[in-house]
Amino acid sequence: MNQLAMSQSEYAHPLDKYLRQPYVNLFCPGCGESQVVFALLRAIDELALDRDKVVIVCGVGCHNIIRTIVDFDVASVLHGRALPFATGLKLTRPELTVIAFTGDGDGGTIGGNHLIHTARRDTDITHILLNNFVYANTGGQLAATTPLGSKTTTSVNGNVERPLDLCALVATAGASYVARWNTHPTKRLVNSIKEGIRNPGYSYIETLCACPTLYAKHNGIDSAGEMMKQLEEASVTKAAAEKMSKEELKNKFVLGNFVQRQPSELAEAV
Amino acid sequence: MNANCVAEPGAYLLSGNEAVVEGAIMAGCRFYAGYPITPSTGVVERMSRRMSDAGGTYLQMEDEMGSMAALMGASWGGAKAMTATSGLGFSLMQEHIGFAVIAETPLVIVDVMRCGPASGVVAEPMQGDVMQANWGHNGSIGVIALSPASVQECFDLTIESFNLAEKYRTPVILLSDARLANLREKVTIPSIDSVETTPRKVAQKGEKNFFLAADGVAPMPLLGEGHRVIVACSSHDEHGNIRMNAQNHRMLVDRLTNKLALAARESTKIETGFMDDAAVAVLSYGISARGVESAVKRARDEGLKVGYVRLISIWPFNEAEVKRALGGAKDVIVVELNKGQIANEVRRALGAEKQTHLVYDIGQLVPPDVIYDKIRQVIR
Amino acid sequence: MQGVLKFREERCKGCEICIDFCPTQALKRAAESSDGVFLPVLEEEKCNYCGLCDLLCPDLAMTVIKFKKAKAARLAV
Known about the structure:
Chain A is an alpha/beta fold. Chain A has 11 helices and 10 strands. Chain B folds into 2 domains: 10-194, Rossmann fold; 270-379, Rossmann fold, CATH 3.40.50.
């Protein structure tokens, strides 16, 4: 076997310019959330956004590791409160690109009330919600998105509660852009984030993230790659899902772009 | 309305809640996010109309936590931001008050106090949130809190609240109450040219000391200005870098409490009357103070050496200034609508120097007669 | 040379996503660990510089640049 090609130093990664120095990545090895951080940076890079006019608002959870990775303005706010903070900021400074970056617990459970009303107001915020099916930062407890039967530290015999479909929730509440993707293929996710940023209303993009340290270990999954593959196997496209029965859809993830329309007039008014 | 959308100078008949709104507009408040709760509803309703006149943003949020988060976002975007609530809502806001404290964020929160705990009595006054205001957020660092005793002060002290919030980059609580909320009195609104409003000191590009300064207050690195700042509810160093060690956090706590001590030294407001030769002092604040002056005057007319001290600044509680105001009095009668929240502070500050007595009621004002009777009882 | 793959060893946490997903199996797990981490090892001739490892790496440890045909031709021995 050959050595790895150690190239000339000019082949620094194109995203390196967006990293805080010194670059330290505190995510676990193989964490899907870390993949989404870089997908976001790719989207920002491809849109050639003015970095000084981008503000990332994150909450509390593994996802907020983003605050020490990216060299942008970051508001690292209280658990569950990224969306109303983002709302106050956006309405005061409409010229800014405001990106809310939350976990599923932060954004969809303790932050659930704000999720509903931000979608209702359709305020121009791009919300990337990282769904790793557990409360990872606190050690892997049950979450509102944990699949039926999954094991967590607070459901050792398998979860008996139904998980919440957050895409359906925000779509009903009034979001003008709603999508769900895996982290692979990356380009599909990056394109969706770009669409979400371009949409002048509330854009909700849910990403299914492997949690190799906690969710995977509790559910007999050996590696990050294995969890990514299992997520892929359990995922169906929107079109395919329409032809499937409720029974067939049990424990499946429906991927796709569920809503993409002109934001309501309310979005302008508020 | 003039071009600034502030009220024209003149005399008005306003309620306490209405005066708060006019004070806020005069001070430059252009962002309000709130949740209706009795007896603060008058603020929310008037603000929704006046904020629209002023070209600012009025948002009715889904709950108090959302309101405070929106205020934080607006303030970090550069706006002077305010909300109003009552006891229970104030409890829900404590987490964000802590966030505003640790991230050094100018904000004004009006607490129109009613009987508690919990739902208590919806529309009757109690000065029950005095302790909560300062200690209610976890970590209990402290805030600045002011207490208006008239509708005029509801106007004036709202402006002062915004000024102190900017000067010290900290949340300021205005402790109003259910009585003042709907009491109508004459308010003189001055010309905006004669009103001193403190502008925000913002960080310039390239500055890195976002949370520390030689004079104790750092210029604020607004979001969206290219500072690449981390505005966090977590512990941090003076540049905003996240730090999770004891040594750094101790320095942060020291910085924050030093800043409040500075505010106490520079900005404490206390009003006194007849204290030069007073053997007995009646100490009060807010709506409770309304019964005190006439009780003291009646006692004076009878030749009794009694005076009054009215706290306008509640927090930080300035022991030195309070002692100075109390002068040579041997007895202090504290009048408040709670079981001694300020009386205990006074007692602690005075030690054995003076005797502290409490006259209180809950849900209704202490009448001047009751205060007068206590004066006679104590002065014997 | 069809392209370049730069691997930043200091960023790698050994998650093996790149190894699991490489479509040509050009990346394999090192036989011995390096500071407790099993780094990926590249078989250069199998690599088509598709860039999937770059896109999927959670630590930005892989930079992959696929040369345009003209440059590749110029660099060809």
